[in-house]
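Researcher: Let's do a round of design. I'm pasting the C-alpha cells now; please hold your answer until I've finished.
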C-alpha cells in the first residue's frame, strides 16, 4: 500500500530513500556551523573579512615612511611661500613710500600715515613674525626743504635668516 501512494505522486521508492537521506544530512550541517561559531568566536570574525594586525602594521609603516619623505618638502615649500610673500610685501611698501614722497613732496612719518592717506588699506602682516611689527628705517628727508625726517625704507623685524643665508632684517 505504501508503494501505491508513492506511485500516485509520481515518486519511486528509490527516490524517497535518497531524499530522506539528503535532507537530514543538510540540516545536520547548519547547526554544526552555528555551534562552532558560538564555541569559537574567531570563526565568525575571520569569515567577516577584517584586517589582521600584521596588515594594519604594514599600512601604518607605509604611511609613516611617506610622512617622513613628504614632511621636509612641505616645510621647505611653506618657508619659500612665506619668503615670497615677504619679498612682495617689502617691494609694495617701498614702492608706496616712493609714490607717497612723489605725491606729497615729503616722506611719511609712519606706516600708519600710508594707511590714513589711502596708499595702503592696512599695514600688512609680516609673514615671518606673523605680526604687524615692521622695522621702519627713518632718515633725513631729501625732498623736504626744512630738513625733516621720514621713513626711507621698510624691513622685517625678524631675527631669523632666510634660505639664502641672509637675515630677513637685511632684505
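Researcher: That's everything. Go ahead.
Model: Designed sequence:
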Amino acid at each position: 500500500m505504501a508503494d501505491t501512494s508513492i506511485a500516485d505522486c509520481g515518486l519511486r521508492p528509490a527516490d524517497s530513500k535518497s531524499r530522506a537521506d539528503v535532507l537530514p544530512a543538510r540540516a545536520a550541517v547548519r547547526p554544526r556551523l552555528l555551534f562552532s561559531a558560538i564555541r569559537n568566536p574567531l570563526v565568525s570574525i575571520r569569515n567577516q573579512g577584517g584586517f589582521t594586525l600584521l596588515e594594519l602594521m604594514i599600512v601604518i609603516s607605509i604611511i609613516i615612511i611617506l610622512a617622513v619623505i613628504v614632511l621636509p618638502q612641505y616645510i621647505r615649500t611653506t618657508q619659500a611661500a612665506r619668503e615670497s610673500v615677504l619679498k612682495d610685501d617689502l617691494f609694495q611698501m617701498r614702492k608706496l613710500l616712493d609714490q607717497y614722497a612723489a605725491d606729497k613732496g615729503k616722506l611719511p612719518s609712519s606706516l600708519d600715515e600710508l594707511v590714513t592717506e589711502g596708499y595702503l588699506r592696512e599695514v600688512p602682516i609680516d609673514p615671518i613674525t606673523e605680526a604687524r611689527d615692521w622695522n621702519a628705517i627713518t632718515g633725513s628727508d631729501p625732498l623736504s626743504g626744512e630738513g625733516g625726517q621720514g621713513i626711507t625704507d621698510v624691513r622685517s623685524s625678524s631675527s631669523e635668516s632666510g634660505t639664502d643665508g641672509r637675515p630677513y632684517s637685511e632684505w
